[in-house]
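Hi team, as promised in this morning's meeting, here are the two structures we talked about. I've kept the exact order from the run log so nobody has to guess. The first one is mostly here for context; it's the second one we should focus on when we meet again. Sequence first, then the predicted structure tokens.
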Amino acid sequence: MVALKSTNCLVCAVDLGGTNLRAATVDRDGHIHQRARFPTPQTTDPQEIVSAIAAAVAECAKQAAGQIRYVSVVVPGSVQPQSGLTVNAPNVPAIVGFALKEALESRLEQPVLIENDANAAAVGEMWFGAGRGLKTIVCFTLGTGVGSGVILNGEIWRGIDGTGGEIGHTSVDPCGGVQCKCGNTGCLEVYASATGLVRIARELLPLHPQSALQEIAAADLSAKAIAHAAQHGDACALAAFETMATRLGIGVANIVNALNPEAIVIAGGVSAAFDLFAPRVRAEVMRRAFPVPAQRCRIVKAECGDDAGLVGAARLAFDAQESATPA
């Protein structure tokens, strides 16, 4: 990534998650200013998603004094950045096959960039986070689902159809019988996501009648609550993280062998519990991957936190502006 020219313009970056929609204005130094947060509409109508994104942008624009020059939206699925078409998005199915870029540009009357959320998080971590100074990383975003962004020699790897890097939907337990929203069984996403961790804990609860998690209503059980219990030595919670980490380790080991990256960066909400699962992930990688790439590859926690996707989305928009501006 080249150095950016300094100006006062802002990008409104929008992170469309399966559960929440977050937006922020970001300047060329990577500093975040205004923020907005809304629940993601649980709908089959893509226009409701468009309206929610437009509302978030408007909320940020109220405080930005007209400085927003570009809108950059990241989505939890595969996209074709040029056309803005969403190829797949298991956790936001309303936008699959929908020309989100065109619809937003018509609504907002501003240029809009569409990108995969994990790709943006990887870019954010290479700009200001755990990937600084590196050229080849894989960034996993562990949230409602499992996203992944692959950067090879400084460039996002998209694949021929724009669907490259969907590691969350590789099979780590195809005979396990747990079906993913994508239709496959045994995807990494059904084990290493926040929703997967909750499912695992619920399945283990009958084996742990003394667990503190028994006191939480089934509907209220969350990854955060499981992490809190695990930090206090709860056997059920620790077992849930053990299962989750084993499957994540299998997925990471496959990537280490296939791509030989310099680092695996773990981002997303579940990364807050990094210390609970990282040792087992590392152990699985050392056990399953070839020794040389396994020893070379660092497994690190993202440094930009939940803002990785927002910062990366802004950087991609600024890069797009730079490339479109005559020298």
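And here is the second protein, the one for discussion:
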Amino acid sequence: MPALALDIGTYTIKAIHGSTGKEVEIKRAVEIFNSLGSAVPNNEAVAQKMIEMLEAMLTDHKLPRGEVRLSLPETVVSTKIIELPVLTDAELASAIGWQAEQYIPIPPEQLSLEYQVLYRPDNGKQTDSKMRVLLVGAHREIVESYINVFLALGIEPDILETQVLSVIRSLGIEEQDPPTLVVHMGSSSTQMAMYAASELKFVTSHMSGGQLLTQTIEKQINLDLQQSEQYKRSYGLDPQHFEGKVKAILTPIVDSLVGEMRKAMTFYTNQNPGTSVPRILLSGGAAQLPGLVQYITESLGTEVLVAAPFSTASGEIPEGNHPAWTVCMGLLMREEA
């Protein structure tokens, strides 16, 4: 059954209308500039402007309002993976609220909580083993205001999940693949997720993304925002262009990001002695910064790949910057509503 996947970012809003499942047939892909600079409405005025902007997008591009799938930015949710003694589904449902109080920094009366069992061993054979559960919490008001935007458009979302889950699904990482650090570089933030043996191990979020790179160029070379964005996309970390000035400006920010990648990889190997993280997968619009792959490879000594979310897709595939579409593709690739 066809569905519409929406990824509302702080810089652009992306939508793909297509079939669902592992092999997506794309009927239409649309990207518009987000003039609000906000991914979630934080007051009634912003909510109304977002409704008007989405209404124009849906109408102008003839996008359906039937089955709609949405992502929540990682910046407005708290994600934690916890270990528990092996519990039945009923026991877990009874215990999960108390567990969330310990790990999610949101008051219970304000918390909207979802959870998913990542691993449950056979307790009869592995009495000392633990089960692992993914907790995703958000302020109830944020979730409700977000959903209310779509209800005002005559849309009742079928799926609402965090970006990182959509991104990982779109990358098609398989059980035999090595431990992989997924780095999703959005406009205003960067999410890192460790994935190994078909399981999400942990998620971290950092408040820097493509916009920070653009703004730094704008300040230091005294260009307007549009010119700075073009310089970033054209020159990036390439020392051969513009006398290496853009690279020199961007390097401190990229070094900070590389440092966070190193910390994430070290944390995983410390928690799992004898393992390594031989691969990094870059996702998001900023992943195509010229010279970025080579720079990370040389800095960390690991293989670095860029996401190819349309590798199994057909139909009206968007032109250019494919890594920016991983969230939409991951939403469509989810087989169950």
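Starting points for discussion:
The chain has a mean pLDDT of 92.
The radius of gyration is 20 Å.
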